[in-house]
Amino acid sequence: MGISREETYRKHAAELTHFATALVGPASAQDVVADAVLRAMWSRAWPSVRNPRAYLYRAVLNEARMHHRSRTRRVARERRVAVPDRHVDAEARPDVAAAVAALSVRQRATVFLTYWEGLTPGEVAARLGIGEGSVRRHLARARAHLREALDD
Amino acid sequence: MTDPVDRLLAFAMAEAVRQAPSPPPWPGEPARRRSAPLLAAAAFALLVALGGLVYLVARTAPSPEPATAGPAVASWPAGDGTLLRGDLYPGDEPAGIVLAGAYGAPADELEPIAEPLAARGHSVLVPDLRGEGRSDGVVDVGLAPGDLGAAVAYLASTGVDEVWLAGYLHSGAAAAELAAADPGLVDGLILLYPLERYLGLDTTAALAVVDVPVLLVGASPAVFRAAPPGREHVELGARDSVDFVHAGDELAEAIATFVTRSP
């Protein structure tokens, strides 16, 4: 290992935070990144990880899903109206904001890597460690959802 | 990117990045854990206490509460408009499962598998096959893969994030054919005692071109070899293809583990 954990973290911190913001919103993004990095870099698998960048993206996605689930449970328990973190300028396009907020975490991950990082489905699949078919499916469902939501 | 949906998604992601906070500081090393023996002793004490509690509750509880509400009858159109029906167990896990039985096995025969899956939070759709049970039409094996596709589309429309397709005996073959013909449709396959061949259906040939995760239960070696790398295989003790539903809870556990493994 020529490069320390801290150096690896500093190299990818900004992009991981962008990714986390797309998944859980700006308010929770830092927490999700910090928890994911702790979990990933001090796991037993870390020393043998070949592609640390992809591994960290997956860790952030996992952490975001856990965050999303616990938040869902908490909201249900408290019987509050869910006010998800807004991912886009809510005043400008409230319909788009709501439609994107309603996507699943994995769908948002796929959308982010496709539309922001400009990756192909094959590259998204490699980054997230899922099948290319799953990527295409998440994308298709996300687009269908958005189209349906905006047609109403 | 001429489609407005593409433009909006690109815009939404750019907005997310614009709103992103600065990265958190380097989190450093996790806090040191307590020594392992102490932790083990604490875990053991907790287990003993929990065991006692479970025993007490089991003794005093008049009857176990049903884990889930029963299924609702659902209906959806097949590709040719024929109305198909089945049992829908609602759940809030992201992974939903279509659980298709064999000819002559109506939906309630798979209840011992569907129920414990639903108790684990999964939405489960158990279709009556075309021409059987509550479904319209007449039996047609050639339409079986497409009919499973209609069930998958229906379950996807109920709001689940992923759809996994489980098929028993010839429905295992039909499920493999569907996944091969429509690579983007399902998130993974669970084949329960799949027939290698059934009339026009060919499980081994279909599996050779499938690229989704596959869980096999009681499959033949030929089917196992044909499945894509990463396939998993479960044996349910001495259970055979008829008796296996009585191992429903064990099977549900294996399926739930398979479909929820992240990411």
Task: Spell out the key features of this protein.
heterodimer; A: 152 residues; mainly alpha; 7 helices; globular; B: 263 residues; alpha/beta; 8-stranded mixed β-sheet; two-stranded antiparallel ribbon; 8 helices; 17% strand
Topology:
The complex is a heterodimer of chains A (152) and B (263).
Chain A: H1 5-24, H2 26-41, H3 52-78, H4 94-101, H5 105-115, H6 121-128, H7 132-151
Helix pairs in contact in A: 1-2, 1-3, 1-5, 2-3, 4-7, 5-7, 6-7
Chain B: H1 4-19, H2 36-60, E1 72-77, E2 83-89, E3 95-100, H3 111-119, E4 124-127, H4 144-157, E5 162-168, H5 170-181, E6 188-192, E7 197-198, E8 201-202, H6 203-207, E9 214-217, H7 221-226, E10 232-234, H8 248-260
Parallel strand pairs in B: 3-4, 3-5, 5-6, 6-9, 9-10
Antiparallel strand pairs in B: 1-2, 2-4, 7-8
Helix pairs in contact in B: 3-8, 4-5
Overall pLDDT of chain A: 81
> Per DSSP, what share of the residues of chain B sits in E-state strands of 2 or more residues?
15-25%
Name the beta content range of chain A. Answer: under 5%
Alpha-beta classification of chain B: alpha/beta
Q: Uncertain runs of chain B with pLDDT below 50, 5 residues or more?
A: 60-68
Q: What is the count of helical runs of chain A?
A: 7
Total helix count of chain B? 8
Cα radius of gyration of chain A in angstroms: 16 Å
Pick out the low-confidence regions of chain A: 77-91
N-end to C-end Cα span of chain B: 29 Å
Spatial extent as radius of gyration of chain B: 22 Å
Question: Would you kindly provide a written description of the structure presented here, covering whatever features stand out?
Answer:
The complex is a heterodimer of chains A (152) and B (263). With 152 residues, chain A is mainly alpha-helical. The relative contact order of chain A is 0.12. The radius of gyration of chain A is 16 Å and the shape is globular. Chain A has helices at 5-24, 26-41, 52-78, 94-101, 105-115, 121-128, 132-151. In chain A, helix 1 (5-24) runs antiparallel to helix 2 (26-41), helix 4 (94-101) runs antiparallel to helix 7 and helix 5 (105-115) crosses helix 7 (132-151). Chain A starts with a helix and ends with a helix. Chain A has 7 helices and no strands. With 263 residues, chain B is an alpha/beta fold. In chain B, strands 1-2-4-3-5-6-9-10 form an 8-stranded mixed β-sheet, sandwiched between helices. In chain B, strands 7-8 form a two-stranded antiparallel sheet. In chain B, strand 9, helix 7 and strand 10 form a beta-alpha-beta unit. Residues 60-68 of chain B have low confidence and may be disordered. At the A-B interface, helix 1, helix 2, helix 3, helix 4 and helix 5 of A face helix 1 of B.
